[in-house]
Amino acid sequence: MLENLQNTDAVYWNRLKKDDPQALGFLYDKYVDKLFFSALRTTDNRELAKDAVQEVFIELWNYRHGINYVQYSQSYLVKVLQSILIKKLKKENSVQHYELEDCYISPEESIENILISNDADTEKKYRLKHALSNLSNRQKQLLQLHFNEGLSYEQIAEKLSINYQSVNNLAFRTILRLRRLMYVFIYLCFMNIH
User: Fold this and answer.
1) Are 60 and 39 in contact (CB under 8 A)?
2) Which of 9, 16, 117, 153 is spaced 20 to 30 A from 64 at the CA atom?
3) Half-sphere exposure (CA, 13 Å, Cβ side) for 95?
């Protein structure tokens, strides 16, 4: 099945190189949502995420003749997306522009609520980082390949030279362990407060 998906994509990559805009449309339709969700793991700014995804396909079209063989389409597109996002985020951080509406706090929102929300986000990130540090190297590798590089379980199985069911089982155990570690951490923090 994985081979059929790769072969289908390979046909469209070849057609793209031959200036076929329908091939770009196929790749866009197939991967735009996945790329958007991948972008949202890097930035909370939905507009920046949308712009970056659009830029991926613009770059694909502009540089289509220089694209070499693409074995894993989603992984390739995620890498292009990450490169674009990094450039955009660096540019955004160096410019540091503030708009009036960004500085305005609505009457329904108090400074206290904003600070509490920021503290909760910071605590969630800390809990996740702590939980991730307690995973095995193999579990961390699986998460890296799936969430950061955008590989499917089939692609991970192929890349790690293990069978699909083993990857599926490892993914299930990894997510289950993460949940347990995060709940244990929340419980311990709650016990320390009281």
Assistant:
1) no
2) 153
3) 9
Q: Does a structural domain hold residue 75?
A: yes
CATH of the domain at 37: 1.10.1740.10
Residues 115 and 63 in one domain: no
Residue 188 lies in domain: 111-193
| Region 147-162 average pLDDT | 86
HSE, CB side, 13 Å, CA atoms: give it for residue 91.
8
Name the CA radius of gyration of the chain, rounded. 21
Domain boundary among 67, 95, 123: 95
- Tell me: pLDDT of 164 over 70: yes
H helical segments located in 63-163? 73-95, 100-103, 111-133, 137-143, 153-160
Span 115-148, pLDDT tens digits: 555 556 666 677 777 778 888 999 888 888 887 7
Q: Average pLDDT in the 164-177 region?
A: 86
Find tokens 């590989």 and name the residue: 151
Distance CA 56, CA 61 (A): 9
Q: What is the pTM of this model?
A: 0.49
Q: How many domains does the chain have?
A: 2
The Cα–Cα gap between 63 and 61 comes to 6
Task: Flag whether 100 is in a domain.
Answer: no
